[in-house]
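Q: What would this chain look like folded?
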Amino acid sequence: MSNPQNESSGNENQAKFCQTRVANSEKYLGSLCEVMGSITRKTAHIRDKGDILAKLCKDYSDEENVSHSLKAGLRVCAENLSVIQDYRQTQIMRLESKVVRPISDYGNICKQIKIGVKRELEAVKREDKKKIELQKLRSKNPGNSHQISRAQSDVERAREDASIGSKHLEEQMVSFEKRRLHDIKTSMLDYFKIQLVFHAKAIEFYSKCFESMSMVDEERDLQEFQRKLSMARGVPDTEEISQALTSMTTTTNGYSDTLGSSDPYTSTYELTASDHRRVRISKTSTMYGDDEDDDEDDDYYDDDEYDLSTAR
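A: My prediction, written as structure tokens:
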């Protein structure tokens, strides 16, 4: 049989240990909840600023009509920045539900544990008080057996209440510790997982932003600006003039002749299976020509065919 004095002292020590444990958990879990909440709020602030940045890039791209490569780069950046903020919103929602909320519940949990610890300490104090009353009664009235018997009953009742409270507190603390360990582990793992998933997606889309801005051709956009600037001053665009002149030139396979040539015929080479044969093509439409020209052409082609047969 255990010594009642030792049992009472053990109940008190256990209650004080639980009190210290709960106070320590309440302190650090409260700080952890505060920090996680602050991170979530700052992340929401960054999301809002990211939305503003994406809108600025889109508006700038819509208004840019000179630097075409910059316009395209800003448009791609706006699209990808918007996607990143969508992932950031998901990150915020997961932080609130999987990290902040489970930890914030420990405010009420620790409060309930502290009530149980306080109740146990009061039971221990009540037992000690009844013991002191019994000792005083025995020293003052050792012959009063009725009062002494009643005082002993009070001590036994207080000891039993303290013992029951101690067992209940022990069960409560074991359950609390088990839940605390699980929740802290799970919350921290969820926090790191949420951050890893977001940053992996962020790297993917930030890389697209980086690539799109790397493709901006500064020299080409500058030349386009200079061309627009010259046109604004009324100076002819040399590039357009050059393209127009190039389009006026007729090019054929192996031989070309520009418009305005005095020769009514142009020549080219026609590749056959055996040799290259020069063919003369009349530039004058036969619809408006006279019969004499047609006859001359017939004579010419007859001679040409003769020469070829002789050559063979």
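Confidence is low (pLDDT under 50) at residues 250-312.
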